């Protein structure tokens, strides 16, 4: 099943005269600065291609002037591309007639703006039901839907409050409620939280994730904050000088940045919240089976300069840890590995985020065994490796 909802292909957006010459230069690899110097044409977007999947939060991040806002406004043709295509569910929206485009904006794609975009002469309810009103939804139905969305964003009881009486965070909630009430498949959000204070921003981020998971909306979110991008995004696109440099999940981007620019851009991000254990685990140096003898276990630990060993069964299921002092005792007393096994060992999953295991790693005596859902040993992760990700 194809889950691609939007497809952007070889998109350019140029401003100014002399576009033909500028386009040719850009396609030959000339930088946008040199193109501007020679032609006076500003290249806001240069050969941008991407796919956005149904039901994901797709975050576009970049510095001021990188082209992220220009790109998002091409998604609903508020900006018309100079060249390239934007397809929605397989249809090229640039070929829509005026009425088709109007209907597309009403029913398929809504937008939440940084400056809220609310109408001061309407109260909360009046603002939230605006999109439904434009669709000619009957008063009773739009009132019911708007009240549901107001409650969903935590503003129940404020339906009749004037907009000017609300805080910035509340206004942003009204904007989100309005977009949700319109019941479009896609919500475009252009730096909606950038003007909010940190505590309100954190609440709004949590609210957005909760709503998206509940309703399954496709959200395209613009930000310049890498921590916000990694917190919200299922996938993240980094832009620079009108180009897309890399598209990846936060974890993929953290562990495999496309180039030095991406590496520098994301270096301030809290990677413990997006990098999983599987990216820092490694094979244990000393591994023994339940069927091995204590003498074999002692020799393995001595060879590797370690005082403990990880124990698995014949199917590589993790069973526990043994220590060398117990192995020596077992050899003397003719005991089996199972007789000296420490089985109450805390384990972690390869999919656990590093942030979730930091305290466990600090508190445990041994490197943490990493086991899959069936209990098989996949590797180990040491306290030092976990804590090094904090630096």
From TrEMBL:
Residues 30-266 form the ABC transporter domain. Belongs to the ABC transporter superfamily. It comes from Youngiibacter fragilis 232.1. One of its GO terms (cellular component) is plasma membrane. The keyword Transport applies. GO terms for biological process: amino acid transport; glycine betaine transport. The lineage of its organism: Bacteria, Bacillati, Bacillota, Clostridia, Eubacteriales. It is a peripheral membrane protein. Its EC number is 7.6.2.9. The complex is probably composed of two ATP-binding proteins, two transmembrane proteins and a solute-binding protein. It is found in: Cell inner membrane. This is Quaternary amine transport ATP-binding protein. GO terms for molecular function: ABC-type quaternary ammonium compound transporting activity; ATP binding; ATP hydrolysis activity. Keywords: Amino-acid transport, ATP-binding, CBS domain, Cell inner membrane, Cell membrane, Membrane, Nucleotide-binding, Transport. Residues 281-340, 341-391 form the CBS domain. Signal peptide: none annotated. It catalyses: a quaternary ammonium(out) + ATP + H2O = a quaternary ammonium(in) + ADP + phosphate + H(+). Pfam families: ABC_tran (PF00005), CBS (PF00571). It is an enzyme of class 7 (translocase).
